[in-house]
Amino acid sequence: xxxxxxxxxxxxxxxxxxxxxxxxxxxxxxxxxxxxxxxxxxxxxxxxxxxxxxxxxxxxxxxxxxxxxxxxxxxxxxxxxxxxxxxxxxxxxxxxxxxxxxxxxxxxxxxxxxxxxxxxxxxxxxxxxxxxxxxxxxxxxxxxxxxxxxxxxxxxxxxxxxxxxxxxxxxxxxxxxxxxxxxxxxxxxxxxxxxxxxxxxxxxxxxxxxxxxxxxxxxxxxxxxxxxxxxxxxxxxxxxxxxxxxxxxxxxxxxxxxxxxxxxxxxxxxxxxxxxxxxxxxxxxxxxxxxxxxxxxxxxxxxxxxxxxxxxxxxxxxxxxxxxxxxxxxxxxxxxxxxxxxxxxxxxxxxxxxxxxxxxxxxxxxxxxxxxxxxxxxxxxxxxxxxxxxxxxxxxxxxxxx
Length: 402
Ligand SMILES: *Cc1c(COP(=O)(O)O)cnc(C)c1O
Fold this sequence. Notes:
The protein is of the alpha/beta class. It has two domains: 3-56 and 298-401, Aspartate Aminotransferase, domain 1 (Alpha-Beta Complex); 58-295, Aspartate Aminotransferase, domain 2 (3-Layer(aba) Sandwich). Helices cover 38% and strands 18% of the residues. The protein contains 13 helices and 17 strands. It has helices spanning 3-13, 46-49, 58-68, 81-92, 105-120, 139-144, 169-174, 199-211, 263-266, 282-296, 300-321, 348-357, 380-401, and strands spanning 25-29, 32-35, 40-43, 98-102, 126-130, 161-164, 180-185, 188-189, 195-196, 215-219, 243-246, 257-261, 326-332, 335-340, 360-361, 363-365, 369-372. It has a seven-stranded mixed sheet with strand order 4-12-11-10-7-5-6, with helices on both faces. It has a four-stranded mixed sheet with strand order 1-2-3-15. The chain has a four-stranded antiparallel sheet with strand order 13-14-17-16. A hairpin with a 2-residue loop joins strand 1 and strand 2. Helix 3 (58-68) packs antiparallel against helix 10 (282-296) and helix 11 (300-321) runs parallel beside helix 13 (380-401). The chain is globular, with a radius of gyration of 21 Å. The site of pyridoxal-5'-phosphate has 15 residues, from helix 5.
C-alpha cells in the first residue's frame, strides 16, 4: 500500500472527524517519527502530550511485553497486582488517598463529575467551569467545556454546567448557588491556548471552594505527569484540589486515565456507583507504572524544568525577531506556546503545515498559539533544530505579511 492509497482508503471508510497531516506514521523512537515513505519528523507534539517519555521508550516496551505475556485483561471483579502498584504510586506522590482508573481523559472527568455530584448530595449538582477550558468529548465533558464551538450541533447538553469568564473571580463568586457542588478547571489551559491560571487566581478559587463547601476539581489530563516540571502541576501552584484527573501521559501511549481524590470525597462512591470494563487494564497499568517510575527517577523532573526554560528562551527570541507575527510566549515547563498576533492567527494552520513539510511536528491551539509539547526526553539539540526550523518558516510568513 502506498501512502496515498492508505490516505484515500482511510478517508473512504473513516468518519470525517479529524483534520490529519497528509502522512502515514509507521514508526517512532524517542522524539522522532518515521512515515511510510521513510521521511523522518522531529515530534514537538508527542501524540498531544501523551508520549512524554518519547516513542517506544524501552522501559515501557519491556513492561508492556512482559505484562501482555502474563495477563492482558480480567474484569474489575478481581484484584490485579499492576492496578494495586499503580494506585499506590499515585497515592504516595500526590494529595490523594483513593484512585479510580479509567481509559481516557474524558472518562476520568466523567468520573470526577459523577463523584462531585454524589458527594454533593440531593440538589447539589451544578459544576462551574471556566471559559476557554477543554474537558473532553463525551456529552457531560462537552457541557463542562467552556468553548461554544464544541457544543454546536450537540444540544441539548446535560444540565448542571455553568461557565465563568476566565480570570474573573467576582463573577465566578456570583455564580455560586445552593445547587453548586464543584468548580472544575485546568491549572493551565492546554487546548484553550496554553493559558496558565495565575497563582493568585487559583488561590482565590481554592478559597471560594472552602468558604462555600465546594469541591475543587483540577483537570490535569494534559499538564499532569511531569509536563510542567513537577509530577503534577498543582504542586507548584499553591492550591491543592479535592479531585484530580489524569490521562494522556499516564501510560505513555497506552490508554489509561485516573481520578484521584481524598478519602472523605472518594467515600461518596460505593460498590456499583461507578465502573469501567477496561479501566485499570493490567497492560495499561504496567505501562503507567513504568512511566511514573521513570519520571520519578533522580533528576528527571529537574531536567524538564531546565529544558522548559531553554525552549521558552528560544521561543522568546523568535517572538522578538518576528514581532509582526508573535506577541509573546507563555507556558510552564515543557508546555509552551508562541502567542500569535491577532493579525497573524489566520496563518496559524499554514505555519504548522509549513513546519511539517520541513520535518517538524507542531500544533496550533485555541486559535491563538503555536503549541509546543515535545516529549520530556527532548534534548537541547532537538530544541535547537526545532527553533531553527520555526525561524525559517516565520521568516517566510514575515515576508508574506509585508
Ligand atoms: C485531552 C484532554 C481531555 C480529554 O482526554 P481524552 O483522553 O481525549 O478523552 C480532557 N481534558 C484535558 C485538559 C485534555 O487536554
